[in-house]
Design goal:
Low-confidence stretches of chain A: none
Order of helices and strands of chain A: HHEHEHEHEEHEHEHEEEH
Number of helices of chain A: 9
CATH superfamily of the largest domain in chain A: SPOUT methyltransferase, trefoil knot domain
Number of strands of chain A: 10
CATH architecture of the largest domain in chain A: 3-Layer(aba) Sandwich
Shape of chain A: elongated
Oligomer: homodimer
Radius of gyration of chain A: 20 Å
Strand content of chain A: 15-25%
CATH class of the largest domain in chain A: Alpha Beta
Number of domains of chain A: 2
Largest interface: A-B, 37 and 36 residues
CATH topology of the largest domain in chain A: Alpha/beta knot
Helix content of chain A: 25-40%
Strand order of the largest sheet of chain A: 7-6-5-9-8-10
Structural class of chain A: alpha/beta
Distance between the termini of chain A: 62 Å
Largest sheet of chain A: 6 strands, parallel
């Protein structure tokens, strides 16, 4: 069986392209523990992180400073044609860089949740929403993100893109949330529900968990008993609901907002 | 020249499909002043609005209550095959309804901005961001949205989808923002910039304008002189920036947040 390394050489063959394109799909990302990151800004964020970059494919219009940075960090690079880059890219945007990166291994240590705020995400499906949630959590200094197993894969190229490099900084794990939440009974769990205390009146403790749910259905019924404080964002107009990334961001903003 | 009505009959011909699909593109939406709305929830929102629905295409697995509602409102309908519906849909999501709707004519009356809050959007390109901004503005009772001419078209199917029906309620206009802003000198303009007063400390007046900018470049330099109060969302973590829809939502939340 060929490993990723067998595919790395100067010219992209059909089988190399096919291998890289397989990383557009969750199944192959899981098998190989590799994922794609596109665009210079995002690749630089992963370079400055514990993640290991396997190789960076670039085209000849690349920013030379970026290339020097890669060289200085002993990152393998490969100059390929614009056409080949478009073939391996999972995004429609015009990028000049695609990197193959090794997934980190993130595990949850329940003790590790103490003294901080974590974000628990139940069933979020949309890659753009998930990426935006990661980016926003990074802005508001949320310590880590714990996802239910039916959430979209955070190594999905669209999630990586929307996270704007924040995925390189925030540990994300997948687990059975009911098991996890049952183990952290000492922590307050602030759950975003349609009917709860107005988030503007919520007194957030020093440590805790923010729990947000699926785009259409909210937080699963089996998780709701773990909520110690139901919170809601008051409605002033007529929209039926808020987007989950928007709701998460407003809650995070309220959490960090100076008191008084 | 054929009008839209010539294309409406019981079976979808190639030219009908081609006409409907032309509405995926801004040029033809502008020419015909028609746009597409997909999904029952969104179509119901437009049904309960001043917009005029021309026709609703549906498949045989349609919710009968919805069909009855259309009949009661004398809306033209056409039962088509699942295959045809997929052909005319602009979205990848599985929908069972596509409606053709007439654009409303929204004009800006500067006097109309008085005594309320309006959102002014400069150069937002991403359809998902624009749709989410419209939905969030609707939640927070923002009166209207005024876009620069280089913003994404709000009748783009992806914008319509992300707005979750709120486009049916909030008037959106396109104009030269520097001309518009020069005419409303009596109103405070709160501009979202990287360096400004912390939004948590901002005292919002009774009426005004929230100004937000492009995803990458923020508010255009030529519009910045119209800002009477630069505001910023304080950073607590490490992300370089916030998504524009997220920033807009946090500002709107602060605007509506009860004082004290």
């Amino acid at each position: 069986m060929l490993t990723w390394a067998d595919y790395i050489c100067r010219m992209l063959s059909k089988s190399q392209i096919s291998f890289i394109k397989s990383l557009h799909h969750k199944k192959f990302r899981k098998e190989t523990q590799l994922f794609l990151v596109e665009g210079i800004k995002s690749v630089v964020e992963f370079l400055n992180s514990p993640y290991k970059i396997k190789i960076v494919y670039y085209t000849d219009d690349i920013d030379k400073k970026f290339l020097t940075l890669l060289m200085q960090n002993n990152i393998s690079t490969d100059l390929i044609s614009q056409q080949d880059l478009q073939r391996i890219s999972a995004l429609n945007s015009s990028t000049s860089v695609v990197a193959i990166i090794e997934m980190g291994i993130h595990t949850i240590d329940v003790a590790y949740l103490q003294g901080k705020y974590s974000l628990v995400v139940d069933g979020v499906q949309d890659p753009g929403n998930m990426g935006t949630i990661i980016r926003t959590a990074d802005w508001f200094n949320i310590h880590q993100i714990i996802c239910s197993e039916n959430c979209v894969d955070v190594y999905n190229p669209k999630v990586v893109q929307a996270s704007m490099g924040s995925l390189a900084r925030i540990p994300v794990t997948y687990t059975d949330l009911s098991v996890m939440l049952s183990q952290v009974a000492s922590l307050p769990v602030y759950g975003a529900l349609l009917h709860g205390q107005a988030v503007y009146e919520t007194q957030f403790m020093e440590q805790g968990i923010i729990l947000v749910g699926n785009e259409g259905n909210g937080i699963s019924l089996n998780l709701q008993p773990y909520i110690t404080q139901a919170i809601t964002i008051p409605k002033f107009g007529k929209a039926e609901s808020l987007n989950v990334a928007i709701a998460t961001s407003i809650i995070c903003s309220e959490l960090r907002r100076p008191k008084g």
